[in-house]
């Protein structure tokens, strides 16, 4: 396996769209189909792709919730590429993007049924926070946040 390149991609990028679609399908299967809504890519999310041998195998996005807070969205690594540190590299790149945009906090939501995701976030310095926004009524949602270094 060669090095993973992290590239900025447009929300309209076909590889990003395919990864987000795969992510949404996997989430629906994991939560027993509880979440019937299909969310497609959003133009206000800045997407990064993890590219291996010319193919996007992972994605993640950053959406501004407010001036201080960025939210990590749509983190996904194709199943055959998991366990190689790609998600951790992508998460670090999203945190750097948030820092460059002046955010002081990064938050995210994941599902209680995704222990691998929870382990990644907690081992990367994220701490549990109260469920927020659109996730409040979802009993399977768990939310995390991480304070970013302050600009010198």
Automatic annotation (TrEMBL):
Lineage, broadest ranks: Bacteria, Bacillati, Actinomycetota, Actinomycetes, Micromonosporales
Q: PANTHER family, from UniProt?
A: AMINOALKYLPHOSPHONATE N-ACETYLTRANSFERASE-RELATED, AMINOALKYLPHOSPHONATE N-ACETYLTRANSFERASE-RELATED-RELATED
Domain of life of the source: Bacteria
**UniProt protein name:** Acetyltransferase (GNAT) family protein
On whether tRNA-binding is a keyword of this UniProt record, the answer is no
Instruction: Please give the InterPro entries that the UniProt record associates with this protein.
Output: Acyl_CoA_acyltransferase, Bact_Acetyltransf, GNAT_dom
Keywords for the protein's UniProt record, in alphabetical order: Acyltransferase, Transferase
Entry annotated with the keyword Acyltransferase? yes
- Protein species of origin: Micromonospora krabiensis
Q: Which GO terms describe its molecular function?
A: acyltransferase activity, transferring groups other than amino-acyl groups
Outline the extent of the N-acetyltransferase domain.
6-149
